[in-house]
Queue: 4 jobs
Job 1
Amino acid sequence: MIRLLVGFLVLVINNLYRNRPYPRFYVLETVARVPYFAYMSVLHLYETLGWWRRADWLKIHFAESWNELHHLLIMESLGGNDQWIDRFIARHTALVYYWIIVVVYTLNPRAAYHFMELVEEHAYHSYDDFSRESEAELKAQPAPQVAINYYRDGDLYMFDEFQTGVKPESRRPAIDNLYDVFINIRNDEREHVKTMSACQRTDAKAVINSPHNPASVLLNSQ
């Protein structure tokens, strides 16, 4: 079922946006945020009912959604959401997937994390292919200010937080042009894949902590 959901999403995005990369990435990033919202919603419910409290997981998933938000802001700055039909498709698809993931996460958290691992893996390869195919064009364009603010000049605490396989403050991306921006987004997606893979471990509850937690164990799936 998870592979069917991801396959349908990828099929729709790839066919509708074959020659429109920025709207394609805008839709992808809009949808990519919502599973993290779903995870946090269910975790907050568990905490409210007194079943399970895990602040580190909430922080990690919020950091993942914060990272995806900035990917989305970058795509908007590049004109990815200029047409109403793209906004309509992105938002309605995201709404549907939010409720699907809420149900899946409630019934089978590992399956919900596997869903996101596959989505992030697709995103990684999409950005990797686009960066290689458009390298010269991208290097000739400046980095959007929103990317500079996020990757270089902003508070990077949350940037470190979602990367459970990387030591905090060890990854500080260069942002000299638009090519650097897409390479960094691609690398972000790779870190999301690692974190989602780690969340599926049988001992995940015991070992996954905030990267800033002194007791944190760095988890690397690759």
Job 2
Amino acid sequence: MEIRSKIILIYGPTASGKSDFAIKLAKKVDGEIVNADSMQVYKELKIISARPHKKEYKKIKHHLYGFWSVKKKFSTGDWLRLAKLKITDIKKRKKIPILVGGTGLYFKALTDGLVKIPNIPLKLRKKVRNLHKDLGPKKFFLRLKKLDPISINFINPLDSQRVIRAYEIKLYTKKSMYEWFKNTKSDFEKGDFFRIYIDCSRENLIKRINVRAKNMIENGAILEIKKFIKLKVSKSKTASKAIGVREIQDFLNKNIDKSELTQKISIKTRQYAKRQTTWARGHMLNWNRIKSERLNNFLKKI
């Protein structure tokens, strides 16, 4: 299997074992790892973002982990610019770039290019989200069909996030989201990438998520969020929306006990994993799907 000349991309739902697999793969192909997870860029959110610990690096270079302040905005465009620089640098040193994470938009921006859609006013975005909530997914999708018949050919009706995005873009710009997309190009060729999607069974994933949530609480997540609260980060910032922030705040305010805290973090993480899986179904049909229990067999074939 020839992947040593490629830029390797590894995506999968949270807790599916991406980081461990990436390290094993990097050792096998002489690679270096680049973060493609929107929460693991923040230096103050090490534990709740499940950022790999430096002890786990095993002499493999890791890039774009824990380097950005939670107080500063970090966009997909920021990540793409930095990731391209890292890829270029890694390849110059005759190493293999391995990008790993669970942020689908990052991978899409890398492989397809970044769509330069005008910023949509927050007031309009809230209005669209409230409409989706009032109508429900099925009726809202029918509204989108009338507003933007082009987009429904490319969207999974169950992908609420994307359905809402298509609606607000057409409403504000008067152009279909896919009219914007077709004029967007990547700096790379399709053949430059080897794409891996880690397919973890729901049952196994739930077990892994439950263990992770418990370990987070035991390993200092509460103290981490205490420090985060002192920074007075705006609620509008991406870091404030990380799973665990609000739940730990509720615990600190004595609204829930520790067992409820662990349970709430597990539930939120499972919901997030489901959204990641939905994203993959809609955007990653051409990726190499590898069952999590077969990852070691894959490594042996390289």
Job 3
Amino acid sequence: MRGLLDAARAHRSAGHSLVLAAVIGTEGSTYVKRGAFALFGESGLIAGALSGGCLEPEIERRTGAVLESGRAVRVLLDTTEPGDRVFGSGLGCRGKLDVLLLPAPPPSGGALGTLLRASDERCGLSLTLSLAPGTLGAGVASGEGRTEAFGPDGRPIFAGGTGELPLPAMRLDVPPPVTLLLLGAGPETPALLSIAKSLGWTTIVVDHRARWSEPARRAGADEVHAVHPAEAHAALSARRFDAILFASHSIELDREHLTAWKDSAAEYMALLGPAARARDLLDEAGLADSALARHLHAPAGASLGTYGAEAVALALAAGFERFLGERRRP
């Protein structure tokens, strides 16, 4: 989603016409599931993926009608027939994909505009889209105490009203961007930040040591706070984090961060380094019997059996991504 929205910002600023593809249902074997998005323009696919590349040409063909009419179009892509072979590609996925192609007119941008505004505010939203004839693609987006509504052409409607849609309608819940707080940095940090960005995570790095904070800044961290642990907690503790990684490579700094963040509501908290080091740190900090100790992932990351800064970064990202996958599983 992050890559898609970054691309949308760039193309909108250049005045390009856009179409947001929203997957509202799937059946059988499909590359993506309900709630996936892709972005198309006059030249074809811009960002996102709805298949391994076999379905996009057909969707690109259909987006032409949306760009020409300015109204939403519903597309059902059926690859379940053995003789179909996915529009001649020979892939044979044997699945169905139900897609709404939504116009994104300036300045509001319809569904795409609501996603961009939610991303800017780092909040999630619930997006309800009409499937009824005559109002196909009209939508209501709500989240963080705010409601926006738009018609089949993507332009604002329901001004001062309730924003109710005729049935049938489909609801898609879009979570807020995943946010990772790195308390401390080291040799693996630039590679981890690169992976995190490719996965769409927001990354915040805390380290007062210039030899680590500056590489993190150059590697594209969304925020770098070159402050000591106590200052970092005072500045950031009111914010929401999905994950906190204690990774300063320093016993003293890790102990200070663990003590400061022991009551954090982050769902995933992990400590870089061996299990024995983690036990010693928690003992020294008086946290051996704390709630933090009971759910702290230590050692952090997935066990890959390989070494080096890049391998450590991959292991750390894999451990968090596995946790996210388990959290999303029904």
Job 4
Amino acid sequence: MIPIEYGKYFHIYNRGINGMKIFLDNNDYEHFLNLLSIYIEPISEIYAYAIMGNHFHLAIRIKYKNEIGYLHPKNADTEELDLKWKTFFPTDDDDRLKNGFIKKPVPEKMFQHLFNAYAKGFNKKYHRTGSLFEHPFRRICVDNKNYLKLLIVYIHTNPVKHGFCEYPVEYPWTSYLSLLSIKPTKLSRETVIGWFDDKMKFKLLHDKTDDFTDIEDIFLE
């Protein structure tokens, strides 16, 4: 299994165990996005996402260790949904210890927290027990900017491929609309649009993609 390394770009994806549906209503989708903000945003830049029925896709860059803030000890080991991550960059160890920040979140573990937190809420809501996601979660390291652009297109057009919609703009549970919007977002919008030069080229590349075979061969194992 490829390790989750600092500073690397990744395609992260997973699905429900045995292909079962893991998003059954709008609240499930919103809850998963909220958990992404809680657990994944502190340790990564999020470029794109798509959430569909029984699976999801993410395009991210894991931050370098010095980009990740410290965690206050009172929250260091909790997996509760009100988890608060503190961004604190001390000048030296004495400064860090004096302010009580002693632990940095570990990227691999943060994904485990994400899946555990979502599964716990899902099982309680739908009166079920047992595993919800396939384990281990899947990851592909993307080391080429052109592939990264194609990955973003692949993620946004995935709902088209699976028959949820005819065009990416029609599906509400991807990052496509947020990247085109001017509203505040936690996505790395400027970085993504910069890779495509501008929003018009971003839209054109998404709209003209109608053959998913080559893209899928690159981004799925």
